[in-house]
């Protein structure tokens, strides 16, 4: 599968049914030695506060991706995996 095929898909968390966002201007972290995808990085959502530089990214470990469908990507992020959120200032 190509990254371009992921663009536009909604990411849904199996753990709580929450919508995490849409794959758009995302990045993949790839292990150069093995060529395997390590994680998917979703850019932060723009809010009034992010206008002044407070922006968050969500890092989803590739192991959390359970299914890639025609319209959605199902991930399983429980409370311990929600530490994957990083806040950038």
Question: In words, what does this structure look like?
Answer:
The structure is a single chain. By secondary structure, the protein is mainly β. It has one domain: SH3 type barrels, CATH 2.30.30.240. Helices cover 4% and strands 42% of the residues. It has one helix and eight strands; from the N terminus they run αββββββββ. The strands form two sheets. It has a four-stranded mixed beta sheet, with no helix packed on it. Strands 3-4-5-8 form a four-stranded antiparallel beta sheet, with no helix packed on it. The longest helix has 4 residues, at 3-6.
Note the main attributes of this structure.
8 strands; globular; 89 residues; 4-stranded mixed beta sheet; 4-stranded antiparallel beta sheet; SH3 type barrels
Secondary structure topology:
Layout: H1 3-6, E1 10-13, E2 19-22, E3 27-30, E4 37-42, E5 55-61, E6 65-68, E7 72-75, E8 85-88
Parallel strand pairs: 1-7
Antiparallel strand pairs: 1-2, 3-4, 4-5, 5-8, 6-7
